[in-house]
Amino acid sequence: MKGLKKLLPIGVAVALLVSLLVPGAALAGTDGAVSTTLSGNDTPDVVVALSETSMTPQTEYTINVTVTDADGYADIASVVLKLYYDANTSTDETEFDTKTVADAQTLAYITWTPGGGFVLSEEASSTWATGANATPTSEDLANPFVFKITPGKVSTEADNVTPSWQIAAKVTDDQGATGWAADAQRSAMAWYGEITVNTASAPFGILAPGTTFGASSRVGSLSMTYVTNGDYDEQVKVATNAFTGGTGTVTVDVTDFDAAAADEIAFKSDDTATLGTAVGVTASASDGDATTNTIKPAQRPKASELAMIVSRMVLKSRCRHWARMFLCWEVKHSACTLPIGHMADNG
User: Could you give the angle at the alpha carbon of 62 between the alpha carbons of 58 and 67, nearest 5°?
Assistant: First the structure.
């Protein structure tokens, strides 16, 4: 309630009339006054602001929560800032209050109290984080509460058109009065992905001229773990300048595969170790018969396996010492830039 002063003096007049109903006697009376006071409490007003309109997992952001309260900083008992995934773009205090269980994909929050400082509530083992938060520097709350927060890796991807991330705060004073507000512009959450593979290289050893796709030219069981917050495809590609050194020149065939010509080498991949269903590995990212995953909302760490990569080499002359193959996995729009022979850890 704005404009209500802390102390409101109220005069209470108490009149006492004493009448002695005695025949012939004069009526006599007395009156007096009693003074008392009532204490009023100012309800906090709240403004929440994130300057950016889109967040990226694993990047720190600053959110300012500005509180207006005539009773001052000492009157504030708690400030709770919540970031939560929303299937639409509208929210209110009732929805805010229902968000109580932290989830790596959909909810994290920071609570400030005078005795406990800033405490991040997150799901166990998530990658949400908080940084150098700050309280107002003056009793009159001229400065905001400053919250530093880093969204976790699997904070669900959102475009802020239909799904969005709400950023809202609730302030409670020492009398239990509350103020609530949300950032009206909300926020998008950018796509994020990373890969961990079980080996740093996939050597074929020495391939004799004329080697065809088969068990003798197979590298098998390469496992990958994906961490991503939205839709993704598992893909594989090979660099066309994959081989140098030795004697002679070898060209990487990324179009003909089974019909690779002399002085060419080609590669196939398959997710079930079945030669008959293996498909050619091209110079640009392709499914390579690996599992295609279009999964929404966000993904926690997900295991996958490319069961084999096989090669075919047709040479005019014997070449024994070639540099390692450029082979990497990429997720969605990530580029493969690591040297040949490494399973890329892109993200």
Answer: 145
Q: 179 with 46: CB under 8 angstroms?
A: yes
Of 303, 282, 304, residue with least CA distance to 291: 304
- What confidence score (pLDDT) does residue 245 get? 53
Task: For residue 327, give the H/E element and its range.
Answer: strand 327-331
DSSP state of 240: T
Chain mean position to CA 11:
59
Nearest CA to 306 among 220, 243, 238? 220
β-bridge mates for residue 16, sequence order: 30
The stretches in the chain having pLDDT less than 50 are 1-22, 27, 288-300, 313-347
Residue 341's closest CA among 204, 202, 207?
202
Residue 101 — φ and ψ, nearest 5°? Answer: -105, 110
The CA dihedral of 320, 321, 322, 324, to the nearest 10 degrees, is: 120
User: Of 103, 120, 101, which is closest to residue 63 (Cα–Cα)?
Assistant: 120
- pLDDT for res 339: 27
Check: CB of residue 239 under 8 Å from CB of residue 251.
Answer: no
Query: Given the DSSP bridges, would you call strands 178-182 and 164-173 parallel, antiparallel or unpaired?
Result: antiparallel
Residue 174 tokens read as 């020492």
Q: Which residues contact 57 (CB under 8 A, 6 or more apart)?
A: 127, 151, 152, 153, 154, 155, 189, 190, 192, 229
Is residue 229 a contact partner of residue 305, using CB atoms and an 8 Å limit? no
* Strand-pair category, 45-50 with 61-68: antiparallel
Q: Classify residue 207 by its DSSP letter.
A: P
The pLDDT score that the predictor gives to residue 325 is 34
**What 3-state class would DSSP assign to 142?**
coil
CA–CA distances in Å: residue 102 to residues 128, 200, 257, 318: 10, 36, 50, 62
Strand intervals (E) in 87-229? 107-113, 117-121, 129-130, 145-150, 164-173, 178-182, 188-189, 193-197, 218-228
* The pLDDT of residue 110: 98
